[in-house]
Backbone:
């Protein structure tokens, strides 16, 4: 499949590929999607085929290419007050 306008491989962002990647890592939807700033319910919708917003798609691509690590994502979330609130809210609901 060809790249879309953002230069992201559409095969890589297919719902079934993302779901299989998460399962292969033995991660819950909550743990997998939280690293990208996404709630479990929204991640579930992505795994069912809902279009992924460009900002999340780019993070996913960078993460799986090895350009961005879990540590990078954690530090970014920790240093951004808005993301901190989102992270705390999602952790409280787990």
Residues:
């Amino acid at each position: 499949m060809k790249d879309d306008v953002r230069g992201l491989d559409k095969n890589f962002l297919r719902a079934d590929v993302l779901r299989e990647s998460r399962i292969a890592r033995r991660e819950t939807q909550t743990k997998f999607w939280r690293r990208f700033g996404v709630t479990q319910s929204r991640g579930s919708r992505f795994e069912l085929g809902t279009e992924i917003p460009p900002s999340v798609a780019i993070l996913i691509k960078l993460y799986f290419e090895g350009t961005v690590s879990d540590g990078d994502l954690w530090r970014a979330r920790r240093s951004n007050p808005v993301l901190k609130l989102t992270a705390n809210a999602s952790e409280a609901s787990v």
